[in-house]
C-alpha cells in the first residue's frame, strides 16, 4: 500500500513535470519566433530612411501599448467580476451569521456589546463535573497559580 502510494505520487510529479516542460517548450518556441520576427523587422528597418524608421517605431509602440491596454482591461473585468462574486458571498455569509445570532438565546441588554462587530454568540453547554479537571499542559502554571490564590 505505501509503495503504491509512493508510485502514484511519483507518477503524478512526473506528469506535472512533463506538463511544465511542454508549457516551457511552447513558450520558448513562441519567444524564438517573436525574436526572429523582431530581428527581421530590425534588419528591414535599418534599410529604411530615418523618417520611416521613426514612424515604424511609433507604430510598433502604439501597437504594443494597445495590446497592453487590452490585457489590462481584460484583467480589470476579471477582477470586477471576482469582486461582485465575493460581495455576493459576503452578503450570504453575513445573512447566515445574523440568522445564527437570532437563533441563539438572547443576551441581556446590559451585557450586549455596544458596537456591532459581527460577533457570534456562543451558547455553552452545562456539564456535570465530578472532581476531574481537563487542561492543556501549557496552561498548567496558570492553573496552579489560580488554584493557590
Automatic annotation (TrEMBL):
It comes from the Eukaryota. Keywords: Coiled coil. This is MYO5B protein. Residues 3-103 form a coiled coil.
Amino acid at each position: 500500500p505505501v509503495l503504491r502510494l509512493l508510485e502514484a505520487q511519483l507518477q503524478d510529479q512526473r506528469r506535472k513535470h512533463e506538463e511544465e516542460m511542454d508549457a516551457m517548450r511552447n513558450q520558448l518556441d513562441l519567444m524564438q519566433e517573436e525574436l526572429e520576427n523582431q530581428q527581421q523587422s530590425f534588419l528591414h528597418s535599418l534599410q529604411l530612411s530615418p523618417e520611416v524608421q521613426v514612424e515604424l517605431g511609433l507604430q510598433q509602440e502604439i501597437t504594443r501599448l494597445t495590446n497592453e491596454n487590452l490585457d489590462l482591461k481584460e484583467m480589470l473585468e476579471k477582477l470586477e467580476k471576482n469582486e461582485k462574486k465575493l460581495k455576493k458571498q459576503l452578503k450570504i455569509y453575513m445573512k447566515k451569521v445574523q440568522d445564527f445570532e437570532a437563533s441563539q438565546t438572547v443576551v441581556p441588554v446590559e451585557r450586549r456589546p455596544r458596537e456591532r462587530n459581527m460577533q457570534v454568540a456562543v451558547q455553552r453547554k452545562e456539564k456535570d463535573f465530578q472532581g476531574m479537571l481537563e487542561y492543556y499542559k501549557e496552561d498548567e502554571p496558570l492553573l496552579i497559580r489560580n488554584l493557590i490564590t
